[in-house]
């Protein structure tokens, strides 16, 4: 893993590096969303520390470039509509 | 500069004021309190135009300084002991981000047992944080080093934070005659701090980036290069300062005192050096071949200067108010490490002394000298340990 941008003295870089550091590679499990159980309550969207949950019409999805697989979304889902599943690589 | 008699802490505060800082963030702790109290008083009296941030901890104080310095401000803080320990993680950020923050550390022992009194365990324990560490012998030097510290740290060859260490109570709470700057006294010596890159909403950047394994080593290596480069800058600045303000020659990273022809050379740092100079004077009057080397800088470690100073010595003794438990005095260990591959013929002895506010007297220094000179001294010794004060673990009865 490395950066595709230049870091200068003092660990300074051009802005927006949080979007260029694709942290999805750290993930061991990914969130699987169940369209049937989802009530579109927004809790998972709110708590995601990586702002990686995206709203859809019937259900949410995770931006797997940034989702680290922490599972907080699955923990807070009131209808257990999010299941953490093992990454197969 | 005005010659006056002033408490050490207040002399430092006046030196800080003359440096025209933009931001002061501090949390009071004994024996540093008078420094930041005096600065706060100056702000209250409209004598000092500075953003004074009253923070809720030393961790916050250093964090505020990091943010302010990244935004291009000249920043100042002061602390001691547990406060420095609480800052520990942020110290590394300040250095890695190459922010020339200046901090006065008022040396005090670390708990436990609780001690508000002086030794140098706090700063010595933080010597790996990437800060330049200077040590002051007296009030005058504690004030002068603050002014020098800004010019050293802000030099573009360096760009590192600087910790100026002054012994708690011994210097902070002692009144001494000192030349104290007023008004624009140091303006020509210390031009405004203008970094090329700073936190600026109109020209945004990311600060304190992640360093993956491909980058991290090179960043650390460049910190080391900056620290190496600071040796020359510390010398230059000390010389320029002495010329500009008509001070005695500080000598840069070390100061030699009758050490050139001495068979036995004593080494120390901080206020203890003053006592040791008196002891050396007395011993030399008695015909003893003894001299002294004062460390003004612990980081960078003045390896070359020490080698030059010790080349003709037969015996070397380090007296220090710290101990790396399980080894001995840290400075003694570092001196041994850096001199291992040099062809010195001297024996080397370390003395742990003056812990937790215990006085080190001229007589103590004389006794240490006698032990070294007579060849009785061990490699590492603890000075004046009172056998009667050692506790014995209470015998336990049989387990029921």
Short précis:
The complex is a heterodimer of chains A (89) and B (400). With 89 residues, chain A is an alpha+beta fold.
Give the helix/strand layout.
The complex is a heterodimer of chains A (89) and B (400).
Chain A: H1 17-20, E1 29-33, H2 43-47, E2 53-54, E3 61-62, H3 72-76, E4 82-86
Antiparallel strand pairs in A: 1-4, 2-3
Chain B: E1 2-7, H1 8-18, E2 23-26, H2 33-44, E3 51-54, H3 58-70, E4 75-79, H4 81-86, H5 88-96, E5 102-107, H6 121-125, E6 132-135, H7 139-154, E7 162-167, E8 175-180, H8 213-245, E9 254-257, E10 264-268, H9 272-285, E11 290-295, E12 297-299, H10 303-310, E13 315-320, H11 330-339, E14 347-352, H12 362-373, E15 380-382
Could you list some keywords that capture this structure?
heterodimer, A: 89 residues, alpha+beta, Alpha-Beta Plaits, two-stranded antiparallel sheet, two-stranded antiparallel ribbon, 3 helices, 16% helix, B: 400 residues, alpha/beta, Rossmann fold, 2 domains, seven-stranded mixed β-sheet, six-stranded mixed β-sheet, 12 helices, 37% helix, 18% strand
């Amino acid at each position: 893993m490395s950066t595709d941008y230049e870091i200068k003295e003092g660990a300074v870089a051009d802005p927006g590096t949080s979007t260029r550091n694709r942290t999805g590679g750290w993930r061991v499990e990914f969130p699987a969303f169940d369209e049937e159980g989802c009530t579109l309550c927004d809790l998972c969207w709110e708590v995601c520390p990586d702002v990686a949950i995206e709203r859809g019409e019937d259900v949410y999805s995770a931006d797997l470039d940034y989702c680290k697989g922490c599972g907080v979304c699955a923990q807070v889902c009131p209808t257990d509509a999010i299941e953490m599943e093992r990454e197969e690589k | 500069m005005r010659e006056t008699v002033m408490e050490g802490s207040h002399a430092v505060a006046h030196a800080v004021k003359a440096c025209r800082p933009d931001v002061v963030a501090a949390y009071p702790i004994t024996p540093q309190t008078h420094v930041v109290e005096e600065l706060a008083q100056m702000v209250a009296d409209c004598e000092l135009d500075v953003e004074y941030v009253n923070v809720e901890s030393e961790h916050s104080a250093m964090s505020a300084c990091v943010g302010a310095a990244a935004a291009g401000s000249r920043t100042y803080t002061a602390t001691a002991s547990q406060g420095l320990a609480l800052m520990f993680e942020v110290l590394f950020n300040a250095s890695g981000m190459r922010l020339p923050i200046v901090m006065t550390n008022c040396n005090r022992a670390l708990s436990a047992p609780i001690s508000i009194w002086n030794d140098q365990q706090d700063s010595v324990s933080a010597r790996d944080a990437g800060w330049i560490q200077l040590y002051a012998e007296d009030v005058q030097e504690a004030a002068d080093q603050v002014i020098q510290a800004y010019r050293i740290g802000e030099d573009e060859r360096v760009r590192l934070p600087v910790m100026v260490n002054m012994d708690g109570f011994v210097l902070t709470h002692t009144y001494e005659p000192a030349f104290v700057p007023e008004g624009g006294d140091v303006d020509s010596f210390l031009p405004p701090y203008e970094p090329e890159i700073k936190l600026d909403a109109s020209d945004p950047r990311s600060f304190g980036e992640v360093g993956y394994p491909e980058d991290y080593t090179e960043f650390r290596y460049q910190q080391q290069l900056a620290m190496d480069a600071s040796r020359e800058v510390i010398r230059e600045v000390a010389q320029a300062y002495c010329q500009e303000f008509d001070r005695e020659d500080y000598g840069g990273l070390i100061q030699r005192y009758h050490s050139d022809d001495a068979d036995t050379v004593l080494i120390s740092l901080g206020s203890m050096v003053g006592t040791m100079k008196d002891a050396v004077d007395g011993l030399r009057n008695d015909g003893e071949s003894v001299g002294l080397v004062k460390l003004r800088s612990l980081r960078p470690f003045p390896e070359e200067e020490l080698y030059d100073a010790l080349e003709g010595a037969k015996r070397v003794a380090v007296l220090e108010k710290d101990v790396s438990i399980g080894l001995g005095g840290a400075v003694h260990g570092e001196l041994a490490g850096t001199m291992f591959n040099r062809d010195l013929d001297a024996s080397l002895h370390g003395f742990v002394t003056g812990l937790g506010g215990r006085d080190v007297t001229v007589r103590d220094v004389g006794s240490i000298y006698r032990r070294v000179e007579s060849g009785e001294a061990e490699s590492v010794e603890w000075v004046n340990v009172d056998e009667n004060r050692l506790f014995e673990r209470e015998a336990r009865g049989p387990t029921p």
